[in-house]
Design goal:
The structure is a homodimer.
Chain A lengths: L3 H8 L3 H8 L7 H14 L5 H8 L4 E6 L5 H16 L3 E6 L4 H12 L5 E4 L6 H4 L8 E4 L10 E4 L1 H14 L5 E4 L6 H16 L9 E2 L5 H14 L5 E3 L3 H12 L10 E3 L5 H5 L6 E3 L2 H17 L8 E4 L2 E3 L13
Parallel strand pairs in A: 1-2, 1-3, 3-4, 4-5, 5-11, 6-7, 6-8, 8-9
Antiparallel strand pairs in A: 10-12
GO molecular function (chains A, B): DNA binding
Organism (chains A, B): Halobacillus kuroshimensis
Protein name (chains A, B): LacI family DNA-binding transcriptional regulator
Chain lengths: 337, 337
């Protein structure tokens, strides 16, 4: 790799002059500056970036923290964020926290060590008080996950209303005993969903008994287990809100090789409108998040903060969801539009 | 954010002494060093990392370049790599190239600018001669994609044999006109697959006519289009090698709402053993890549290069695949184990 000495030699100038050009310092004639820039180009010389960054403190890189890319919701979110960021000349790096408090903090360090200019948090496992200090090193924006008391911009969906509507839909389809299947660490977003679900049950005078609460269901194989648990131990359960298309797919897949029918014996609602929710037979009733709009706004807000520090108020942007009615809940013909 | 002056003040020592401790320089008593370390801790002071990095040149960060995380093969690969890397204390950042030559080079710059210590390339769109110069800045390892003439370690599967076996399986199931559906930019890996496929056809004396070559199929909706193209224009086609479980799922989904039956009228082979290949009805015959083993070996080889520069020969590690026989090709009962 070319060194500063190589550049000096090729340009026929002193190391000090080269250093002045690299550091944008005065006292170098335009002619000498040109010779040095040309020599740097010819040699493929990149000024030591750590030194450059010491000066400019800019990396034009944004880190996006999320639990895992194998969840298609986050995969699609990243796709959209990346496209938007590249319109502004920013590159995106993806950091998986796997819901680990330590990993989340480790990746936030990228901000402190100036390896990235700003951070988007699409999930949050630490307490806000442990995240807040990193704001001194650069802007952080929430997308998807949110925290009532955080003093940063938040872009998200109204998960409470979404879950409420899904539960009302199941109730209107005649379901009497609806299980709530979720999983992963407790989050604000998760708590909001649960709250919406419970409000619907209360409104319809349905009690939420212990056995309706399943808190370990994350993926397809969990969905399969949920089906067998319901069928063997609580066969009166006739509806499931899963909070996940993968769990819903597992339930439906397993039901198809049993004597139970979806939706007649068991109606199932997923979440996120993943491709699999369309491919399943029956197709899965699910909630569509406005992924692209949320991603675009998040990137826009973050970059505005980078370009005009302090100019952005810590506003909340709440985007509308859509309950997509499909065959996995079609118990009453008339109710499906 | 705390400054070096704050640390000096709290420790009751000079700025120079603090600077000596930060830079691991001598002439500081252990007692003073302890006071300064404690003051840094109390204030949450992080020595300017760019300066630190100038000295140590280590970030303990690995970048993984891949086309997109929404492809579950790459999602799973990243999961496994991250787990392995964290065992060694390395963090992983994910960089999506979207098959763009420019983005690939932009992310390789992370190596040149010392933002990462090493790079794993799970795909490659530039010519090797344009990637090679970055080796001067740090180690690069190929995983999944490979290049015969590249002088770096390569960890991959034998795609030629995998495609050959899949094609032989379709031929043995009685398929006479087998389409080859693929998509995306031409890659070495893609060329190898095609070669294996064509060798099988030749061995069985089947010609590969123009209409059998479909080169624009990447995702589920492409798979749906492929089905309609075959059904309307080339109904004698009775088998498809897709190179993608998503394309296979699209084909099968669309066939299920037509008068065609899979596998009787059209046998379909996917690739990668994604979850969807199991959930489809019929389930999809596919090729399983040894994702975890490849990821583990790749991270191990890269970290060995970081720890012992120059100690690793540019070896190739070829891992075995598995053809998983499922219902989407089950035309002849006896042939399925």
């Amino acid at each position: 790799m070319a060194t500063i000495e190589d550049v000096a030699k090729l340009a026929g100038l002193s190391r000090t002059t080269v250093s002045r050009v690299i550091n944008d310092q005065p006292y170098v004639t335009e002619e000498k500056r040109q010779r040095i820039v040309q020599a740097m180009k010819d040699l493929g010389y990149v000024p030591n970036s750590s030194a450059r960054r010491l000066r400019s403190q800019k990396t034009e890189t944004i880190a996006v923290l999320l639990p895992r890319v194998t969840n298609p919701f986050f995969g699609n979110l990243i796709e959209a964020m990346e496209q938007k960021a590249s319109e502004w000349g920013y590159q995106v790096i993806v950091c998986q926290t796997h819901h680990s408090r330590k990993k989340e903090i480790d990746y936030l360090q990228l901000l402190k060590t100036k390896q990235v200019d700003g951070v988007i948090m699409a999930s949050l496992v630490n307490d806000w008080k442990d995240v807040e200090p990193y704001l001194e090193s650069g802007p952080i924006v929430f997308c998807n996950e949110y925290m009532e008391d955080a003093s940063i911009p938040m872009i998200h969906m109204d998960h409470k209303t979404a879950a409420y509507e899904a539960a009302v839909h199941l109730l209107e389809q005649g379901c009497k005993h609806i299980a709530y299947a979720s999983g992963g660490p407790e989050s604000h977003l998760g708590a909001m969903r649960k709250q919406g679900f419970l409000e619907a049950l209360e409104e319809y005078g349905r009690p939420f008994l212990d056995e309706l609460n399943i808190d370990w269901a994350i993926d397809v194989s969990d969905g399969q287990k949920v089906f067998h648990l319901i069928r063997s131990d609580f066969p009166y359960i006739d509806g499931v809100f899963t909070g996940s298309d993968e769990v819903a797919a597992g339930l439906i897949y397993e039901a198809s090789s049993s004597d139970w029918k979806v939706p007649e014996d068991l109606a199932v609602v997923g979440f996120d409108n993943q491709m699999v929710s369309l491919l399943m037979v029956p197709s899965v009733t699910t909630i569509q998040q406005p992924v692209i709009q949320m991603a675009d706004k998040t990137v826009e807000v973050l970059i505005q903060q980078l370009l005009h520090p302090g100019a952005i108020a810590p506003k909340r942007y709440v985007y509308p969801h859509q309950l997509l009615l499909r065959n996995s809940t079609k118990r009453r013909e008339a109710a499906i539009q």
